[in-house]
Amino acid sequence: MGVELRQDLDMDDGGVYSDYDLALHVKDVLLSVSSGDVVSVENYKELVGRLYPRERHSPDDVAKLVASLKGLSGAASYIDSAVHAGLPSPLFAMS
Fold first, then answer.
1. What is the CA radius of gyration of the chain?
2. DSSP class of residue 3?
3. Where does residue 41 rank: exposed (0-12), middle (13-18), buried (19+ CB within 10 A)?
């Protein structure tokens, strides 16, 4: 019996998600990106893309950034430096 991946979590749908839901989703994204599956790679790219600073943030952008950071903090032990090489760069660029 395996754990179903939560690739269906959509921050654009206006739903309310717990910190646990966010961490579980980010964990699943981090673990599945190495499979090379198109959906997994796109979800990973979207996650990393949310972390890059922009000149202007809309309230929705800020909410998505906060949710992504909460998810990452809950799934930090699943970050693999060999697989997720592009992830630390935007995090260290935040000030």
1. 13
2. P
3. middle
Q: Give 56's Cβ-side CA count (13 Å radius).
A: 1
Choose among 23, 39, 56, 43: nearest CA to 84: 43
Q: Which long-range contacts (CB under 8 A, 24 or more apart) does 22-25 make?
A: 22/67, 22/68, 22/70, 22/71, 22/74, 23/70, 23/71, 23/73, 23/74, 23/75, 24/74, 24/75, 25/71
95 residues of the chain, pLDDT tens digit each: 333 334 456 656 666 778 898 899 999 999 999 888 898 899 999 999 888 877 888 888 888 889 899 999 999 999 998 888 888 888 888 76
Q: What's the rounded Cα separation, in Å, for the pair 73 and 59?
A: 21
Chain centroid to CA 29: 7
Supply 32's token pair: 């599945």
